[in-house]
Amino acid sequence: MSLVGVIVLTAGYEFVREMSRRYEASSAEYANKLPNCLDEDDDEDVRERSSLLWATGKSLGEVEKRQKLVKAAFYAVQVFYSFFIM
């Protein structure tokens, strides 16, 4: 019975890892599609990425915050699974 439990936990852990990888890949692809209207000559201090608005009306900063929260949630679930697998 405990062997079945470990197998189920491990399968769940691998599922969460795969979903995390897919999310990271899709969020990186999405970030690359966002418009970049800053010149390369601009100084880093002048760039305010959170002030750029794009088609949906969301700022880039809001998108980055959401992506970080989702990645943190995936990480928390992975840690939960790995704790019980051990």
* Terminus-to-terminus distance: 16 Å
List the total number of helices: 2
Q: Residue share in helices?
A: 55-70%
Beta strands, count: 0
Contiguous low-pLDDT stretches (5 residues minimum) are: none
Which structural category do the helix and sheet elements fall into?
A: mainly alpha
Could you give the order of the helices and strands? HH
Q: What general form does the structure show?
A: elongated
Question: What is the overall pLDDT average?
Answer: 78
Q: Which sheet architecture does the biggest sheet show?
A: none
Q: What gyration radius follows from the Cα positions, in whole Å?
A: 19 Å
Give the strand content: under 5%
Compact summary:
By secondary structure, the chain is mainly alpha-helical. It has 2 helices and no strands. Helix 1 (2-33) packs antiparallel against helix 2.
Explain how this protein is built:
- With 86 residues, this protein is mainly α.
- Helix content is 67%, strand content 0%.
- The chain contains 2 helices and no strands.
- The protein has helices spanning 2-33, 60-85.
- Helix 1 packs antiparallel against helix 2 (60-85).
- The longest helix is centred in the N-terminal third of the chain and has 32 residues, at 2-33.
- It is elongated.
- The protein starts with a helix and ends with a helix.
- The mean pLDDT is 78.
